[in-house]
From TrEMBL:
UniProt key word S-adenosyl-L-methionine: yes
Listed PANTHER family: CDK5 REGULATORY SUBUNIT-ASSOCIATED PROTEIN 1, MITOCHONDRIAL TRNA METHYLTHIOTRANSFERASE CDK5RAP1
Keyword annotations of the record: 4Fe-4S, Cytoplasm, Iron, Iron-sulfur, Metal-binding, S-adenosyl-L-methionine, Transferase, tRNA processing
Gene name of the encoded protein: miaB
Record-annotated MTTase N-terminal domain positions: 17-135
Family that this chain belongs to: Belongs to the methylthiotransferase family. MiaB subfamily.
Binding-site positions, [4Fe-4S] cluster 2: C172, C176, C179
Name of the protein in its database record: tRNA-2-methylthio-N(6)-dimethylallyladenosine synthase
Length: 508
């Protein structure tokens, strides 16, 4: 045993505990992880160096219950940490998010080395639960049944200096048969408009120039107060905030996508010409079985109106292939909608059972080989359309917001990457002058691939921005931190240009 005289008190005082947050699932979880990081840093923890891979004093899993085999992946990861925790007295492991809300006590039974289990409604309790687990030397499981406080009131460790998520609602009032999220996130609860705008104004004052409004069903905003035009009013209000250059939102639901929202998008200059509109299926029969409250004609009508009002809008979607009972004719209807809508990109998923959802017990589950074959046909069609739509961008002059970490080959090709107003990814030739993430570069598109564009000529213009200043200031501050306390800027928290969720809750 080591005596107290063998230890260095100076190290105990000067070395703060480190943390690592691992995030799974949708944009909601990514934003929740920003809050978990903020809470832990507010409590005195510092982020573990990038690549520490479980060597932190506290490892937090922010889980998703929507993805296939989510529980197996969680327990596999927990199992890999068990020997490390056994060899490191004082290390703690916490599990939160949707899977924690669903499985509750099961997690501690299957992985008794876990210290804390918390749900989607009480993420603010994490530091207290960690301390309680340490003092009492036993696992703390605390799952709230309803939202205790709107999460945006919590400390937040934003992962990007120039782009930010802004949550406008939590929960969902829909009952889609493939989705368990409403049972885990609860009924929709909206934030006050004034609070949302105040948060955006504060972010802009810090240098943020792009915000993404976030909600499980973002355009149903206002249902709490009975104002069906609340979302369009919010978009227009964002247009009055000086210094806010780009506004995006995800994910809307076709049921709530009204003409006033289209008008607000078209008439508010800083609302970007981009729309992610989940389709899920093009078959009216399947949509009914999914309990999606729109039909093919309604969906295509929305797309037509958006294109009429915003000709250059890039429209993306989510599609599920092989939902129980889907016939070849049903699938052909999905292909028909894809051809008609001409999506810039589609996030396509093979249906798989999600325990706890009505669809999991439906008859006529589709054989795996049939689902796979249909999936491949859909992907091939969408790939062709994506390429054709991208080719239409060649010759256009676009303003790009320079992005961080989006071009894996940028170093080798001497290029940088940025996002066009419609959120298409563009790799462009690195200008002679310094360009920072958050700055704006004007380029001419010279080449199109299915998933990105190239601007191979010299930049036509480079505009240094307050967002670039904020990025530079933040990086300088982080670089000045002592070794071992580097927080870095991991890519996961920067709002994705297109929903990264593979079947996640915000994609429905």
């Amino acid at each position: 045993m080591t005596s107290s005289s063998d230890r260095s008190p100076a190290v105990d005082v000067q070395s703060p505990k480190t943390y690592e947050v691992r995030t799974y699932g949708c944009q909601m979880n990514v934003h929740d992880s920003e809050r978990l990081s903020g809470l832990l840093e507010d409590a005195g923890y510092v982020r573990a160096p990038e690549g520490s891979d479980g060597d932190a004093d506290v490892v937090v899993f922010n889980t998703c219950a929507v993805r296939e085999n989510a529980d197996n992946r969680l327990y596999g990861n927990l199992g890999r940490l068990a020997p490390r925790k056994a060899s490191r007295p004082g290390m703690q492991i916490a599990v939160g998010g949707c899977l924690a809300q669903k499985d509750r006590d099961t997690i501690v039974k299957k992985a008794p080395w876990v210290d804390v289990v918390f749900g989607t409604h009480n993420i603010g309790k994490l530091p207290v639960l960690l301390e309680r687990a340490r003092v009492q030397e036993e696992a703390q499981v605390e799952i709230a049944e309803s939202l205790e406080a709107f999460p945006s009131t919590l400390p937040t460790r934003r992962e990007s200096a120039y782009a930010a998520w802004v949550s406008i609602s939590v929960g969902c009032n829909n009952t889609c048969t493939f989705c368990i999220v409403p049972a885990l996130r609860g009924k929709e609860k909206d934030r006050r408009t004034g609070d949302i705008l105040a948060e955006i104004e504060a972010l802009v004052a810090e240098g943020v120039s792009e915000i993404t409004l976030l909600g499980q069903n973002v355009n149903a905003y206002g249902s709490d107060i009975g104002d069906r035009e609340a979302f369009s009013k919010l978009l227009r209000a964002c247009g009055t905030i000086e210094g806010l250059e780009r506004v995006r939102f995800t994910s809307p639901h076709p049921r709530d996508f009204t003409d006033d929202v289209i008008a607000a998008m078209a008439e508010t200059p800083n609302v970007m010409p981009q729309l992610h509109m989940p389709l899920q299926s093009g078959s009216d029969t399947v949509l009914k079985a999914m309990r999606r409250s729109y039909r093919q004609e309604r969906y295509l009508g929305i797309i037509e109106k958006v294109r009429a009002a915003i000709p250059h809008a890039a429209i993306t979607t989510d599609i599920i292939v092989g939902f129980p009972g889907e016939t070849e004719e049903d699938f052909e209807q999905t292909l028909h909608v894809v051809r008609e809508a001409r999506f810039a990109q589609a996030f396509t998923f093979q249906y798989s059972k999600r325990p706890g959802t009505p669809a999991a017990t439906m008859e006529n589950q589709i054989p795996k080989e049939v689902v796979q074959a249909r999936y491949e046909r859909l992907v091939a069609l969408q790939e062709e359309i994506s390429w054709e739509e991208n080719k239409k961008q060649v010759g256009r002059t676009l303003e790009l917001m320079v992005a961080e970490g989006e071009g894996r080959k940028d170093g080798a090709t001497h290029r940088l990457s940025g996002r066009a107003p419609d959120n298409r990814l563009v790799h462009f030739t690195k200008p002679d002058e310094e360009v920072r993430p958050g700055d704006v570069v004007t380029v001419e598109i010279t080449y199109a691939a299915p998933h990105h564009l190239l601007a191979e000529g010299p930049a036509l213009d480079v505009r240094r921005t307050r967002a670039g200043d904020a990025w530079e200031k933040r990086n300088a501050a982080e670089a000045a931190k002592p070794a071992g306390v580097m927080l870095g800027l991991p890519k996961i928290g920067v709002p994705e240009p297109l929903p990264a969720a593979t079947g996640g809750c915000a994609a429905h």
